[in-house]
Design brief:
The chain is built from 8 helices and 5 strands, in the order βαβααβααβααβα. It has one domain: Rossmann fold (3-Layer(aba) Sandwich), CATH 3.40.50. It has a 5-stranded parallel β-sheet, with helices on both faces. The protein is 52% helix and 14% strand. With 205 residues, the protein is α/β, with parallel strands linked by helices. Bound molecules: adenosine-5'-diphosphate and magnesium ion. The site of magnesium ion has 3 residues, from helix 1.
Amino acid sequence: MRTESGLFIVFEGGDAVGKSTQVRCLVDWLTAQGIPTVQTFEPGDTSVGAIIRRAVLDPATRSLSARTEALLYAADKAQHVAEVVRPALAAGSVVVCDRYVDSMLAYQGAGRVLALEEVERIARWATDDLRPHLTVVLDLDPQQAVAGKLGKDRLESAGDDLHARARAFFVALAEADTEHYLVLPARLPIAEIARRIRERVKLLL
Ligand SMILES: Nc1ncnc2c1ncn2[C@@H]1O[C@H](COP(=O)(O)OP(=O)(O)O)[C@@H](O)[C@H]1O
Ligand SMILES: [Mg+2]
């Protein structure tokens, strides 16, 4: 379902690959063009979403069943799409979102114990099957991205295997649907990545 009048752009990739940096670059550029733009992220960019995010990431949560975790992320997405994304698209805005369904598929579906198809069914239901017009995947070896990063939260502390599988998953999604994905090497200079993203986004405006 890609019927809204606005434009939905998502950034995906592992931890610390530069998603927030590029979200900011793109939003600044769109805003400078006078294009109504909404910057947002998942999980946590609604009131209830912030509570859900805290619950999931807090080390005090300790072991969370995989199904519980998936449902919490799905609940965050359901609220985020209903409260933030759909209304902004309906108003004709460009919505730039830091992580979306693919992250849930990569981390709850492809990297853990749940079947990908099950996680996808839940995620699509939660988001009412709203799909981005473009997903930018920032691709980087997870060892390089998280190396030296201190104070890891519960998910960042998960095995290297999870992050390696998530990386491969993002790239595979992109390769299967080049019309809706753009993969960029995440350690090109920040300005060069931003320029390549703008070139692609211009085609959609
Ligand atoms: N292209 C790049 N090359 C080198 N360092 C980068 C690049 N993009 C971002 N960084 C740096 O990497 C770190 C993580 O960036 P951030 O945008 O917060 O990543 P994410 O949101 O994916 O976790 C920051 O210190 C940022 O300045
Ligand atoms: Mg970030």
